[in-house]
Amino acid sequence: LHYLAKLKIMVIKDIEREDIRFVMTSLGCRPVASLDHFVPEALGYADLVEEIRLDSGERLIQFTGVQNPGKTASIVLRGSNRLVLDEAERSLHDALAVLRCLYKKKLLICGGGAPEMEVACRLRSLALENPGMLSFVFQSFADALEVIPYTLAENAGLRPIETITELRHRHVNGDSAAGINVRKGCITSMYEENVVQPALVTISALTLASEAVRSILKIDDILRATRDI
């Protein structure tokens, strides 16, 4: 480092391992482990690299005029205290997760427990059309799905039994967009309230829950570990 300082070459130390891939993508370079691989093809180019200081006293490294920039972006979060900053980081993470879901599956559905209740009503109809053991399967799956809007109504301070009964009645009559409006404390159309969510969230939840139940049902016996005395 002493010789690099003499040559006025800037050195940035203590880069986190999880940040290396981000730096590579942003600057168009690749990591070099030895001088033998220190070739021009492995380097990135920028017009200016400088250290800037924020009002809070923290320091950042700013790259300006990158010749081959990657499709990356840096977001600087600020807050009055650590609690506010952590909450802002969680909110940003949730927003990016929503965008990721929409990128994978470009489809939005109603929120407020509407999709779960609609599927539950369809399963109850299938239970009536398929008598026997299969009817109990459809009925049990429908009961499990109704737990989601029931919990939502309970957390919103509503009467869950009355709310679920009204919500089920609306869906049976063909109002598939009806959901629990937490702000107004009643059942309204989620499309009109602009309460939507990525379809991938609901699909993934139902898929993973079904796989977990299937794994449990495949268990034939449980062997309890005993300790010899």
From TrEMBL:
Keyword Chloroplast: no
GO-annotated molecular function: ATP binding; ATP-dependent protein folding chaperone
SUPFAM superfamilies assigned to the protein according to its UniProt record, in alphabetical order: GroEL apical domain-like, GroEL equatorial domain-like
Domain of life from the UniProt record: Eukaryota
Gene3D superfamilies reported for this sequence: GroEL, GroEL-like equatorial domain, TCP-1-like chaperonin intermediate domain
Keywords: ATP-binding, Chaperone, Nucleotide-binding
Keyword Nucleotide-binding recorded: yes
Family: Belongs to the TCP-1 chaperonin family.
Official protein name in the record: T-complex protein 1 subunit delta
Protein species of origin: Trichinella britovi
